[in-house]
Amino acid sequence: MPQESIAQTIALIGPPAAGKSRVGKRLAKLLHVPFIDTDAVVVSEHGPIADIFAEHGEPYFRERERIAVAAALRRPGVVSLGGGAVLDPETQADLAATRVVLLTVRAEAIARRITNGKRPLITDLESWKRLVDARSDLYNSLADYTADTSTRPIDTIVQEIAAWVEGTQKEGHA
User: Which residues of 121-141 are buried (b: 16+ CB within 10 A; e: fewer)?
Assistant: First the structure.
């Protein structure tokens, strides 16, 4: 895969627990670029997301998330966005100028990934399904490339995304 780093930003979007952080870290390493997890940025600056939701509510969290996303998308590298970050119209506009990879995952593969209690909008598999159903059209409309993370090895997924990135670079796409 590429030895020289890419000049553009690659944004990873998708539902909670689709593997955006895991895939993003490995993709950034493979492409020799920085990795930014916008949820991690919010946590480092404001504390655990579940606590932010409990103490200040979702709108307050979304404002902090928007600031982190806007800053991250201005820099080249791989950026993992929180599952709901795409709900913001300004983020949607920013993503229009970015290569966007949608990571999807089937419900059967998600149960073990959502049991850690770190996701305030996800309390069980049914709440995850409702959230994904509500957002899937938006996710699909923003995506330039889609990869399912349900059962395939993460390194295979990362290799395929890297090959797509390299292809879009040669074709001269943003």
Answer: ebeeeeebeebbeebeeebee
